[in-house]
Structures are given as C-alpha cells and as structure tokens.
Amino acid sequence: MAQLSDNDFDIFGLPCQFELDGAALSAAYLKLQNQTHPDRFANGSAQEKRLAVQWATRINEGYKRLQNPVERAIYWCELQGENPRGQQSNLPQALLMQQMEWREQLEELGDQADLEDLIDEVLAEKKRCLSAIATCIDQQQDAKAATQTAQALLFIDKFLIELNKKLEQMEDAS
C-alpha cells in the first residue's frame, strides 16, 4: 500500500508524467476512496479513524491536483525541485512582451467582440503552452523549461479570470 508521504502519481499508480489517462486516474481515485473512506472505519480505533481521514484528504487533494493540467504540471516541476509559483524573474522576454501587449489590448478594448477576440487569443496561447509543457515533461524531462511554461500558464489562467470578469460586466451592462 502507498504511504501518505508518497507523491500523487505513486499513490494513484500512474506514471510521473504530464499526459495522463483520465479514465485510469478516475478509476484509481474511486478505488482508493472505497478502500480508505472514513465511513469504512466508523467502528475502528481512534487511530484508524484519524488515519482514514488523513487518507481521504490526501486522496482528494492529489486527485484535484492531477486532474487539473496546470496544477499537474506545477506539481511535476515541484517534484523535480523547481518552484513555478516562486519568483518569476526568469520568464522569457517574449512572454513578458506578450503579457504587456495583452494588457494594452485590454485597456484599449472597443467592445465585447474585441474582448471575445482577446479571450480567444489567450485561450489559443494556453493550448499552445499545454502542448509545449507536455513535450518538456514527457519527452525531454526538462524541468527548467517546464517551469517557465508553467509560470506562463499561471499568468494565462489569472489573466483569463480577469478577462471573463470583464466579459460578465459587459454582458450585465448590455
């Protein structure tokens, strides 16, 4: 049996890589939940109950992390000793320029159609980054490059939240 301290990939019996079989992840999650759910230990000792709660929490957190491609990439980088959520001073110049351009576009929006076009452009870049990070992790095992791409994905996700809020505001105003 896996240990609480094992990494998520090991706990779920999956290869430590970016591309995962979603069905295998879900099946492993359900199996683990069935084995460790606290209700199964209702008549157990206090230690067994506490351990069941710890396992249920650990399994839920791991599943949530592996299910989300950006979080899975960040987690893989962390396993390699990198910190994508840390200081982002190492971002490529091209990404920094792209961020500035998108910010300028956001400030100069003419209408809802312009905003939707910007959202489409950012989503396309997210898709490109997800493909790039899959290559960095699964084919090249390049933690540094994966970390830079993960940092770009973090910015993109944050910016998409901002763009979608702006879209909601425009829709509510019309």
Keywords:
globular; mainly alpha; 174 residues; 72% helix
- Topology as a string of helices (H) and strands (E): HHHHHHH
Helix proportion? over 70%
Main sheet properties: none
Q: Tell how many strands the DSSP assignment holds.
A: 0
> For the terminal residues, how far apart are their CA atoms?
57 Å
Content of β-strand: under 5%
Radius of gyration: 20 Å
**Poorly predicted residue ranges:** none
Shape: globular
**Number of helical stretches of at least 4 residues:** 7
Mean pLDDT value:
93
Q: Which structural class best describes the helix and strand composition?
A: mainly alpha
Task: Give an account of the 3D structure.
It is a single chain. Helix content is 72%, strand content 0%. With 174 residues, the chain is an all-alpha fold. It is globular and about 65 Å long.
Give a brief rundown of this model:
The chain is mainly α and 174 residues long. It has seven helices and no strands.
List the helices and strands and how they pair.
Elements: H1 8-11, H2 22-36, H3 46-67, H4 69-79, H5 93-107, H6 112-139, H7 143-173
